Amino acid sequence: MRYFAKMKGSALSPPRVSLVEIFWSWIGAFLGIGAVSFIHFNLFDGLDRVMLIGSFGASAVLVYGAIKSPLAQPRNLIGGHVLSAIIGVTFYMLLHDQLWLASSLAVATAIAVMHATKTLHPPGGATALIAVIGSPQIHSLGYFYVLMPVGLGAIVMLIIALLINNLSDKRSYPEFWL
Question: Where are the domains of the chain?
């Protein structure tokens, strides 16, 4: 019974955020994803290159909407994505004929490595998974996937986060770098 009782939770719902906070989160996410999307659809269009991956949407929630979270800090954004991309590509290369195993090993190992390196960034799990289950276009990138789209995209989002999250007197980003 105690096991199931723990599932009730122990805290109240978090407070609402202000309209100003919502505004700046929206602006940051729009500009951050907009910049990565612009690069994807305009600069690399026709070059068979990928710049926009789904895990960046989750990163946007953190780096523009939850900027005080340890999971949203630059070390976590860059390190979490890059390490997870390396792990995902490696497991795809080793186990591409067993995608169920490559997928589970990539995500579980990415979480463990992010914990061990203090770079835990939940979207990193998706970055590792995308390396395994992504399209042939993603697979053809091999370890270049780590540099682009992952590394470059995360850096673009970080630059936008630094610029936008510090425009308001009520916001300050980052909390820490290393």
Answer: 18-164
Question: What values do phi and psi take at 151, rounded to 5?
Answer: -60, -50
Cβ atoms < 10 Å from Cβ of 35: 16
Residue 71 DSSP code: G
CA–CA distance, 80 with 73 (Å, rounded to integer): 10
- Taking the C-alpha atoms of residue 81 and residue 85, their distance in angstroms, rounded to an integer, is 6
Six-digit token pair at 34? Answer: 């907009």
Which region holds residue 142: left if phi is over 0, alpha if psi is between -120 and 50, else beta?
left
The pLDDT tens digits for 146-164 are: 999 999 999 999 999 999 9
Q: CB of 162 within 8 A of CB of 121?
A: no
**Residue 122: is the preceding peptide bond cis (ω within 30°)?**
no
